[in-house]
Fold these 3 entries.
Entry 1:
Amino acid sequence: MTINIDEALVLKTADIGRAASKHSLKINTLSSKKSKSPVAQGARVDDKGPLKFVQRIFSKSRGSNPVAIKEISKSCGRQSPVARPDNMNHTPAPDRQQHDPNVNQVEEMETQEVETVETDKIWVEEFMKGNGGVVMNDVMKNQETSSSDMPLACLDAEMEDDEARSEATFQFTVLNFRSLKDSVLSPPCYVRNLPWKIMVMPRQAPSPDRQQQKSLGFFLQCNGESLKNQGATCYMNSLLQTLYFTNQLRKAVYKMPTESDDSTRSVALALQRVFYELQFSDKPVGTKKLTKSFGWETLDSFMQHDVQEFLRVLLDKLESKMKGTCVEGTVPRLFEGKMTSYIKCKNVNVSSTRVETFYDIQLNIKGKKNIDESFKDYINTETLDGENKYDAGEHGLQEAEKGVIFASFPPVLHLHLMRFQYDPITDSSVKFNDRFEFYEHINLDAYLQEKPETPADYTLHAVLVHSGDNHGGHYVVFINPKGDGKWCKFDDDVVSRCTKQEAIEYNYGGHDDDLSLTVRHCTNAYMLVYIRDSQLKTVLQEVTQADIPTELSERLAEEKRIETIRRKERNEAHLYMNVNVVLEEAFDGHQGNDLYDPERAHYRVFRVRKQATATELMEMLAENFRYPQSHLRPWPFSARSNQTCRPTCLDITNDQSKTVADISENMNPWNIFLEMLPPDSGFNLLPPFDKENDVVLFFKFYDPKQKRIHYCGHHYLPIASRPADLIPILNKRAGFPPGTPLVLYEEIKPDFVEKINNYNEPLEKVLDELMDGDIIVFERADNRHEDMELPTCQDYFKYIFYKVEVQFVDKTVPNDPGFTMELSMQMRYDQMARAVGQRLNVDPFLIQFFKCQNYKDTPGLPLRYSYDGILKDLLVYCKPKCPKKLFYQILSIKVNELDNKKQFKCLWVGPNYKEDKELILYPNKGGKVADILEEAAKVVDMSQEGSGRLRIVEVSCHKVLPGPEPELTLDQVTISPPRLYRIEEIPRDEVNLSEDEILVPCAHFHKQVYATFGIPFYARVKHHEPFQALKDRLQQKLDIPDKEWEKYNFAIVTNGRPNYISEGATINILDFRPNSSANATGRPWLGLEHINKTPKRSRVNYLEKAIKIYN
């Protein structure tokens, strides 16, 4: 198999490696059989030897300008290690027999031989373990093209007469290629300051005999630098590249004052950073800091958005941020145009005009051949006649023409091609992939109100292309950076040179049999950026270092320096460990078991080399705390089998030459208690400690009145000491008179404190497995009262062990912050309900609780009031490392009555049908629909002018249908979606209908009868009644002002077809009666046609939320 490198390089390089179309460069793919010996070029295969790839880079003179190529690569600043395979050669593995007879044929190189001279040799060995062996060698640049011999411009001039001239030849040797598992890249060979690499990729594909056939693919890669994609931010990357190359805007962004801005919340600073890195960085630029400055969460970066909407939001934000600065007004000066909307009467001299501003123009492309037809359609006039005549004041209703005309076009013109439009049939947005032609140069004088001083000639600067459908897709952008017709393609982090045809004609969309393309039908231009020729040099003026404020450069350089340090720390993290130092002050005030809470402690963190010795660690601690080493003694914390963590002895004298990793037993982080000699102790050294004969004990005092623990320090004692020897020490520490009787306990594990009964036996016999770090808890023996809530420390520690903070959230209130209560995990349901009821001042029986869904932060199934478990069982499904949470709602009936009730969710609507709200009712399980209405009557507010009677209806797609009959049992009523029921009060005039009256369903729609919206309703209609009487009744019912009511049109909709009702018509109720074969949903209804003031957003995907920049 062979590949054409012309095409690969067109896609992957800045036009450097493109050969002439008549001189295609091909790489040989050779069989591994020894009978086919490899030649000097191409893939070299040997059963025992390495696999070697030789690649030459060629330059072409015709069709491309090498000098211009150099300028483009410089202006774009392009280098990137990221590759995307385009075309590949495949070398079959030696152990797989080939079935294709052409596979083993060697193809000749269709290019001239080029003499090469080795000037540099690079030998790199990598991927030697488990990935084969790789060697990059013999990187050869031709003497005549070496940058050290002559300037690049001279080289370009010299190559003018050469069809395909080699600039460099380099090869990549893969050792032991059979064991190659992953793709490997050769080290870069820099030609014209661009990194060229050979990528080798092992592949497996099924052969004709259905067996997996191994092959080896390779291709030449050269990527320019651009923007990284965070997940679904290609739309943003495309637009940022376009704005970046709008150089006048880039200059203004640089000059925005951001000295005092928060680096994480400032949109201006984040955009400055992106532009700065695009201009000067040689790596792909990340946009995470920019999206973070928008106030977006991580999920927002994975949501596809509309590029035109993002442009509007971003420009609005920039315009507001520039107010009051030296660059105020830059955005409107660059992007703002003006258009005049007008209405002109035909028969009288009356007209109305209004001037509006725009930042982009939305062009309709459906049924339009090119951009000229779209502009003509945009300014096309609409005739106002018939029922739609214009109100000309004293002249009455007049025929008129309505339209728009452009007053001025901006220097930078954004044209939004409306490929996404609403489809009423599917009730969704669809993408139109029709062919639509646009041009590199356009003149817009014909669409201006007055002839401009300078012609409205525009040059195409950028083409934003969307691939995909209304559910999502991918954006790329083609940019003409200098407006000179030399185009580049920006696809996230891949930048490449391309032809004018690829940038323009290939993105017309539709099908074109004349173009031999592999472009998908759904790939086409979505947004165009034109720059006015008279402003071209100003808008695209070069941006230099002098245009960037020194303060900004220094700040960004400092950020980069700090990031480099942090990156180095991350790369060297495996060589270091953290030592968390806890001082004795951290033990004061701790109210739980052990000496401190590891999750809340204030550590002094030291980053220590794992190979540092214990002596070096002590020197570091002494230097940082400014204490002599003789005044410090470390006590590492050690986890015990009884779920406690206590200080243990560290023999620094004997372990001083050991490494920190060995002493800590590779714990990371390593927590230690650092004992310090108190300055007022009067000693020059810490008291000696004999690890064989001494023990260190820690002391706590429990006060039952305060229900608090007080830390009382630590002490060294001989192992042979008795508990009685501790009494004087503890009285002194607690400030009690000598001889005060004390009760001693040993804190053994979190929920167990054991009382010491024998004070005269040695500690090693009295205490359970005497060890360093044991804790003695004491309390006064003469201060114990059984009527106290927690009279002993045993009661206190049991309470602490089961204590938990629970957050209660009202599930009926969106984003309710809730409230937090401190409860015991041993609480029963009724105890918890009483505590919460007291907190809410609500009867506990009116509160229904819900536990969390499995590890989700959403309410699950409700709890029965007879639940016999404990609170601990309800919290096991809460998300880990998050506050314990339960949900609740306040009911209208007692929770113990719910067992005999059935929940019924419906809507309640007021008498003017303006808005509805959710209603939750609890009728008896064996009840009827009439019981639902009785329950609703107890909780809803009825109108004083109403009938006091309720009815239930069904609502579907904003249309109203008859509800279930009152005598129907609840078991026969479907309560789950898609059925939605609504309860409403029956108007007085609809309670008793005469024989010539019926109730007609009414619904709102706009233009298409499928586009229903708003709240539907029933209206009383009388046979042979003037239609005007019905209109007056409807206006009063809906409470709509006269001026707005004049814009309403009315139609009888039958089987999806509207029949508009003319003025002066008389109602025939037979028009509203359904055919005998029609079902409930097919019966005629009265449609009120008017503008929907809350329309659906026309966007790629209706499920995505609107773009918003929060900061």
Entry 2:
Amino acid sequence: MQGISFKEDHISQIPALQLLQKLGYTYLTPDEALAMRGGKTSNVLLEDVLRSQLRRINSIRVNRNKEELFSEQNIENGVLAMRNIPMEGGYLSGNEAVYNLLTLGKAFEQSIDGDKKSYTMRFIDWERPERNVFHVTEEFAVTRTGMADTYRPDIVLFVNGIPLVVIECKRPDIKGALDQAISQHLRNQKDDGIRGLYLYSALLLSIGNSYGAYATTGTPAKFWTKWKEMFVTEKEEAEYIQQLDCLVNMPLDGRQKAHLFSDRFRYVRAYFDAMEQENVLPTEQDRYLFGLCRPERLLDLIHNFTIYDGGIKKLARYQQYFTVKEITERVKTLENGKRRGGVVWHTQGSGKSLTMVLLAQAIAQAKEILNPRIVMVTDRTDLDSQITNTFKKCGREVMNATTGTHLVELLDSKTDAIITTVINKFETAVKRMKQPLSDPNIFILIDEAHRSQYKEMAIKMDKVLPNACKIAFTGTPLMKKEKNTANTFGGIIRPVYTVRQAVEDGAVVPLLYEGRIAPQHVHEGPIDDFFTKVCEGLNEYQTTDLKKKYSRTDFVNQTDQRVYSIAWNISEHFRDNWQGTKFKAMLVTPRKAIAVLYKKYLDEIGLVSSEALITAPDMREGEESSYGDTSEEVKAYWKKMMDEHGTPKKYQDNLISRFKNQEQPEIMIVVDKLLTGFDEPKIVVMYLDRKLNGHTLLQAVARVNRVCDGKEFGYIIDYYGVLKELDEALELYSNYDEEEQAAFRETMESIDTEIAKLPQKYSYLWDLFKSIPNKRDLEAYAQSLREEDRRQEFYERLTAYASCLKIALSTRDFHAQTPEEEIKRYKDDLNMFVKLRSAVQLRYSDTIDYKQYEGQIQKLINRHVESGAVKPITELVNIFDTEAFEQEVEKIVGTAAKADTIASRTSKFITENMDTDPVFYKKFSQLLKETIAAYEQGRIDELEYLKRVLKYKEDILAHTDNELPEELQQNNAAKAYYGLALETYQRIFDDAQVDLKKLALETAMTFDEIINRTLIVDGSVLVDWQQKSDIIGRMKIELEDYLIDDVKRKYGLDFSFDDMDTIIDGCVDVAKLWIK
């Protein structure tokens, strides 16, 4: 036989059987395996092997000097217990019963020396793999349920006669080979399949020469996953490669070879003998078998990395396995009386909660750690039952700390229970502990939901739990400013698992991004008038303050028309793509008032169902400010929700339950809630109308990356414009290396220098008030700050002190070296001075109370800022397709980042430089126009826009069109009239013998003359004509007369009144924007 054979036996099944024998499995021919099953294809246990092993690995320890064997009756009872699995709860329930037998054993009564007691019999020796026996067979025929025929899995692996691994092999040249192999496993597990075999399975494999995937019993196709080895050092990787290469190229011994090729493979022995003459390269199939099926690894995976979660069986993914192994080794040894913790970075959706549970279990079972006390700090209350069940097999109780006091009691009690708690109870406990607990066998596992509190929490824990091992979990990369935080826990724990790895592995779905915009246009006149009047009563500082707030893009983006336009776009988009499927959406908004407004408009439009999940009206959320009154709409909505649900908790729980389990609502509208930690795989799209960045942005978009059947991608539809922020956040996915460690040490040195200045800055601040005899007299403080220069000095000294204290409070050395009462004094005095600053700012009008303006300005903006139809501004692009995504980023933000004065950053630039150009104060609406123009023009044709802004900023809204007639080049309004007319003419008169471009030019020029003549009187535009129906009506009649007389009749065209109205209405709308 010459060349490569692609027969399944040759290229997959026989090589697998060869390697498995080299790994320690004894090969059985199909006939031998059937004989060991009593000749019954309905029986899947090798009962004689099981019986023999029960005798071998079990004994009863009566006392220190005496051991007894289990009776033959009990050995038989053990075989019967494994054979007769209860199935009342269903197939997966039976599988869990098998797992409990395997891991917990089963107790049988036996009388020894007249003393009858119960003793536990084990089915597998987990601690000593070499005491178990491993068999492999192929073409394992099993009778189908209720049928006379059989199904034949390609390979089955047995441990002590129990079939724990089922493998399907496929040739690599078949299209969709891996999917076919997985499909066979799923077929085999159906009601009419061979569930009798899969009842015992712990690991399922689908393999071929160049691919592989693994899962466990009951795993849907979507959740089959890849296995990869992970290495902490290059040396480890090199040793692994060498070991596998040697194993693959090591020949079977003569007996093994003779046995393998003695039956149905006899015909192909010469082919494999020839292959042995030269070395071969290890295949992906080899890597899967070696990585998952070598005896010690297989037993480790089954015993320590398998759990049942809500009736679903889960087997660890490779990153979970290697991370738990690495941490377990890391914490086994003491360094200076402590165990080294750290931060685990595994991307969202990769199973961090399961990793926490598996790690806690590994620590609990580690023989090197005596009586470990494990505290799991997490918000997921649904973890409790999962944790409780997981720890049954290692004999550990799980206790939930119901209060902070209860947690202190549990820690003091030296209980060996796994303790679960939430963050606020944990912090309470830390505060209430009077004496430090110095036990190095206390482990604190902290979920990422409280990432912002890592540093402060670590410092507090150091005081009361000085030797505890702290391990934090995060799903997003640590930003540069957070790297010091990682070091306070013990550094980044490798291996990390990034979102790109997760996408490649299929652990999460790729995310597709599309930017959209609702164009807005400003009517300047009324806004000018309003702000001229308002600013007359304000000083320069107050004028600046007011204009800064209301020229922001954020404020403009909250107009009623814009929200309605986006609500309509969302309704159509969801209806057209996902309505009627199981999939759901989230809509992220900046404030409660906008969330309620979206709910109102989505209901009015009526195409989709929605709910708004917000906090109580008196709680700040999202971008809400402390000076803003809660809108009446929010109060009314909250009252309605409380009337319907009773309490805030029931309101939240009920909405989430409906969202997860019922067809409606289809869209959940949120501000802050559910952006982190919320896991619902059916969310397929996030509509984003709020500025987010960094960690928060990555957390939010991860709500749509969970794997779900039928879900190929998650979608981010961005109406706000966060493409650059998303690009920057993705860039910050970085590792932690030795150079950064050195940088950290340098940073710590500079921090120490800064902290040393704290007493000086504190005294310098108090020096301003040393002449005040009664330090409790607020009026004396206020009067001492009557002069503006002195107030400015106060503000500057307070800022310097606050900044220095913040740095100090973030370091453990400061807490260790500074008495508690001194720290309290620093903090209390800062709090007092901050309140004093607020009081004197209001007293001397250094700032402005926005409450009296907000309602008026919002109404003004709603009336005089119009929003057009939403339109896309980027291609739909996979954010993990680096090249394609960067191309879209370059289109939108690449040039803007270089110019730093255009696109979505124009608003920020103007605000920051407002006081350097007073002309902006006199024309507030121009600031507003710049904000909207940056949002619209800069994000569409960035390169052309940049050239024009750099060359002549006064022409920022100019555009050119080479196809336009020369007569229109300098007339922006007429350009638009021409385009509208030509579009309609070409649509309805394309067969007419008329020069349509010439006709459109004539129409545009005539319309321009009629509109200008109507609206401009004595050289001035009629004030607020856009709101005066009599003027607009008179103008429309004259425009219609022209179209009837000079187009329809003159050229004999079939011109309907509806088509005329299309042109007239469009041109009048354009005039509203240009003629002011």
Entry 3:
Amino acid sequence: MATRQLAYDQSSNTYGKSYDVFLSFKSEDTGKNFTNHLSRALNQAGYRTFEGGDDNNESRREEEINSELFKAIQDSKMCIIVFSQDYASSSWCLDQLVSILEYKMKFACMILPIFYHVDPSNLRKHKGSFGEALNRHEEKFKCERVDEKEYWEDKLKKWKDALSQAADLAGMVLENQHESTFINKIINVISTRLSRPALYIASCSIGIHRRARPINSWVQDDGSNNSNIGILLVCGIGGIGKTTLAKFVYNLNFGYFEISCFLANIRETSKLPNGLIALQKQLLSILLKNEKAKISSVDEGIIKIRNALCYRKVLLVLDDVDEPDLVEAIFDMKDWFGFGSKIIVTTRHKSLLRPQLGHEVHEVGILYTVEANELFNFHAFGHENNQISKDYYKEYLEEVIEWCRGLPLALQVIGSSLAGKSKDVWRSAIEKLREIPTNKIVEKLRLSYELLEDDHDQNLFLHLCCFFVGMKKDFVVRILDKCDFYTLVGIQNLIDRSLVTIEFVNEITIHQLVRDMGRDIVRREATVDPGKRTRLWHHTDSYNVLTGKTGTERVQGMVLDMRMIKKDKCCSSLIPLKQSPIGFFTAWSSKVGNFSLQDHVRTDAFEKMHKLKFLQFNKVQVNGSYKNFPKGLRWLCWSGFPEECIPNEFPMGNVVSIDMRYSSLKQLWNGYKFLQYLEILDLSHSSELITTPDFSGLTNLEKLILEHCTKLINVHNTVGCLQKLMILNLKDCHKLKILPDSICELKCLETLNISGCSNIEYLPTELDKLTSLKELYADGISMINLEAQTWYSSLWAWAWKGRGPLLSPKIHFPKSLHVLNIAKCNLSPDAFNNVDLGIMTSLQWLDLGGNPIDELPDSIKNLTRLKTLNIAYCTKIKHLEGVPSNVTDVNADGCISLEKVGSCAKGHPVEGYLNCINLVEVEGVFKLEPLDSVDPQVLANKMGISNLETIMRSSMVSLVFGRAYDAERLRNEYPGHVQDDITNLFSLSPKKLPPQILYHRGVFSTFLPGESVPNWFSYKFTDAAEAYCTLPNNFNSHKTINGLSICFVYKCPEPYTNVGLYDGPAIWVRNQTKDLNWALYPAWFGLPQDDQTGIMWLSYWKVNNLFEQGDIIEVMGSPQFAEFKELGVKIFYIANDEQTENYDPFEDILRNEFSDEERTYYICT
């Protein structure tokens, strides 16, 4: 079904217009018959009509169109365009069409296309008489002066775009009926549309077409449900644009329903005395065609509305609904709506309706960045959008737009408030926004908070805003459940209200303005004295409360990061390092001058904070006794803890999580501690930690994180007492020598990470008894020091100095593993002979990278669930065979000896083979072989190569693998033998070979010496690396377009001396008509020899069924490192009953692998 499109502005008010209808038509075609009768019928029906026929006057100047014609269009409530067979032959008509559609995009001009004995698809595809007329115009323009060429090309493109756009508008087609009957139907449609005024929509509704598209498509889809009525819930936070979108879609579609009704502000109206009855009266009045409705009770209203519906097709919009009871009665009578009826409900509550209703939900998203910029600039700088003004405020624009985060309301309010203000005011306003959000925005957003069902959800929301944004949902639930919250159901309620979202990485996400609204609610608890607030999320407030000792028992949580205390006289000598991606937990410079906080922050500042549950400190130094420290702490997060040992009097009896990353601890505490609630202990990056404590009192510990504790020597044997431990992370503990045997007693352990423990000397002998272990990371371990008595000796004994390989039984990793990483362990092929990978039937991810293996272990073929295989920088592998068919992701980056990848890896993306500089075939993806292996007839017919023998005898071409890059940064992460191999990689010269043929999926290419595009090509372009051409539509209808040949000539500005220096060239092909794109980045590309100056890249693209007559095709050559010289294109046709040539071993270029966003297929990228 054609999609109706329309944009509305304040100027859309149809009152005060000079004309009701603007009539556009080709006079010679319809002026004396159909259009004449239509115009007379319009006048008889009382509609003032302006006739915009061409009157055979092609000589009238364009200025007349821009003045007289555009004024008439602007003064008309509606435009009717009569498309007849010869319509496109008139440039006057085409200019009219462009003007109408341009006006339509800005203002509320309803458009009704009439297809008079015309197929709408001919407009869209520029076929039939429309294609022929456009071709005549194009030939005429070629005769114009050279200096006007660009002007006429732009005009032709506008005409084509306008015809395609008009074809997509919902119109009326004359076919198999009397003209008089058809004209009566037109009059009825016009009467319906003009009798219902469109709803007002504010000016500059940026992005509204894109955002409304899914809603509009749903409204126009009669087959979207199996019942008479479709129900769509449009939800989102306040200020996101729900009502505006609903109005926009209503305006597009109300003329296509028997009854249309937009009930606004339902939530507010329902609060008034008899508010629900007032809404029923409003709806009933519309159903009864403006008859005054009398209703004395809600039940009576339900009965009268049901009777008035009478199975009619209805479009009903219920705006701003919050209580399901307000609309349930309407849905209970849905069987009385006519087939095709649609109900749209806008709400902040995603779970407003019962699932049994079978409704659909559409969540309104924020504006794209470019849309946000445009909307803000419109309100800040006016309609002119002055570039000089934008440049003047450039230093502030990005920050303020970023603060708005795509929320239309914020962009409008902030933009308008800053309009015409000086730079100083802009700067001051931005500083205020950081601390105190704009009241108008807060009040709009706060409504969602106030509509939460109870104070439980409100308090949960405020906790999330102040302390938990960006944190993992599981962690938040773990902490807050211990604070008497019902966290899971509470978070779901917040999600339903669009206050919180859970990102794909399971993180708590809150729109920045919604977060600021929550924090502002806390700020208003005590605007002057922050110590009386429930939550101290602002670092300066926390610092002042602690140094002033003004904290009260109301304080439940506190955040203080000393990096955020800037320009304060008490901490001006602090020297923070640049923040790393881990944010709050960032290493600090040890050079903090002579300043110390111990004179300012003392433990007695916490004595009144009896309700303190959350403490987030970073590099805060506190002096005094912890005897009276708050005892109700649940979350102790103290990055950079300054003590060497946690004092014994520190109250931790209720703590659920201790997070002391980057601490100065040498030991955690003295002796034994019973902490029954502790579930997480994170001491990562505590570079002074030597040993771990007695764990026997931590009976509920689930996560133990000791990553990068570089001085840690051993782990206490009581670690085996942690029967609930699920994660043990010892990554990069470089001095760790022993893992205790008691680790094998951890029956719940799921993840063990010993990566980078390069000095480990002993591993437990029974790790295979860890029956719950799912992930084992052991990459980068030095196996030379492992004792021969361990079962690992059979795996790594070959590497021992002074010893030969040992004959040992098969090695059994835990069968339960899903992830195994044994990369960079210097494992030889002999070592892998003793590894039985096949028993790990659940394994999904395997990393063998950086090991000196020359082939994959045989047992890998039994891994039927394996999805990801990493063999990066296995520099000895030449042939990759035996990869299980279920593997979808192979990373062979840096396998510089690899020559061929077998069919087992068919379909794997080529980006997995970076720096494989000898790779000539990935079966089913690409293949490089001599040019003379191809049928000479095919080369002659498809690429214009008729002298194959001469070319093979006299030409040599330098070829470079197109997936090479400088891996200097990566190579230092791998063992010595890998580093040596990679060192030689970038000193290699390009391969000098006879001409080769390069196959890709549906494309084959060759690179030959050449300076220009051969005359064999139909189209030739020399002034730009872009080519636009319209596929002819006047050839035999029994033929279809089968392929394209492309010739891209480029030259190198300087000698190309080694691999990995530049990106290779690329060709883009775009079917503008169908919005399909292909990008070809060749696996190999050619370079000129010393005595050559140019390379001619010839390629043939097999495009069966993807291109049609009249399609607009764009071909672009991207030379990357090189310089563009010329571009040529030739089109091939095939008879419908002719067999496709059998020259290509691969399928056609694909059309079923496009993403909805990009609509682009990357060939061998």
